[in-house]
Amino acid sequence: MSSAAVQGYSTNPMDYLHSYSSGSSDITGGSDGIYGLNGNNSGNGLNQQQILQIIEELLQMLQQVLQNSDGDDSGGGAPPVGSGSSSGGNSNPFPQDYSSAPPVDSGGNAPPLASSQPPATNGAPPVTTNAPPVNNGGGNNGAPPAGNSTQTTNNPPPPASNGSSSNPGSTMFGLSTAPQTTALSQSQGQQVANQYVNNLMSDFGLTKPQAQGIVANLWLESGGMNSGINQGGQIGAPTGNNADDNANGYGIAQWGGPRKQGLEAYAKQNGLDPSSEAANYGYLKQELQTTQSGAISAVKGTSTAQDATAAFMNTFEKPSDPHFQSRLDDLALIQA
Polar residues composition bias: which ranges (predicted)? Predict the structure, then answer.
């Protein structure tokens, strides 16, 4: 709007009051005037001073419209919305604050509305990127190992501690439960001797030299720690002759007579073969804890392996032909 749009209107409020008093309807649009609130001349209307004040306010608003329209280069007639209060002190009747409105981008497109809801997935689970790497090695066809389990190796399980002779790989007292069918080599005999030494130290509280003295006697009697040896050198099951003489001894200590029968009974009772290493040590331990406990007492009274060898020979073996030097030679093999 320009100032030309309101040309012909007076800015003097008295002119409009004069027009009213003469019956004009320039601003009322009706012959009833503006005295009464209900449009009639009832005597309860506005006085002259109130009318002048209203007209002045209307003129001030009109002047503000003209000033704004004259200063608007864009050609628009209305003042911008949200421009604040006018120079006359009157507030904009419809103030609004658009400072929080989202900006329009250079292409004229408003940014998308923010949403607190997650994007729709059409029911499909989200794709994660934390999958374990593929293992391209070995016999599990590339799949990673499950959980924290240890990878299986090809090593056989350890032998059972109390197996029977039906399982050749089982042990008892750290010794084989399998029947002996062939003579041991010297190195094999030394391995068995070392296990005997450890067992005797653990089971009877002996020192290592004391235990070695006992085993030196067993080495001589058995021809190198052969548990399935018959007197004369045959390896295998015991003969059926249980005579207590120098021709029918059997086992690691060359038991004869009732003691030979005792070995066979012990083996049967424990599900062992009498020629096995486990049956021979088990029966030896049983004797040293019971009927032959005096031999342990004698060995415990010694301080050297040589003395222990002699003590055990005299109290346990009681040979008719001692061959003591040979026993000492065998002691050297055990100590090597």
Answer: 173-187
More confident call, 264 vs 110 = 264
Same domain membership, residue 176 and residue 60: no
CB atoms within 10 A of CB 210: 26
Q: Structure pTM?
A: 0.52
**For residues 120, 123, 126 and 131, what is the CA-based torsion angle, rounded to 10 degrees?**
-170
Q: Give yes or no for residue 265 having a pLDDT over 70.
A: yes
Q: What is the DSSP string of 283-301?
A: HHHHHHHTTTHHHHHHHHT
Residue range 169-193, pLDDT digits in tens? 699 999 999 999 999 999 999 999 9
Which residue range(s) make up the domain with 8? Answer: 3-70
Statement to judge: residues 183 and 51 lie in one domain: no
CATH of residue 305's domain is 1.10.530.10
Q: Three-class SS of residue 154?
A: coil
Total domains in the chain come to 2
Residues in the chain: 336
Domain assignment present for 33: yes
Task: Work out whether strand 175-176 and strand 171-172 pair parallel, antiparallel, or are unpaired.
Answer: antiparallel
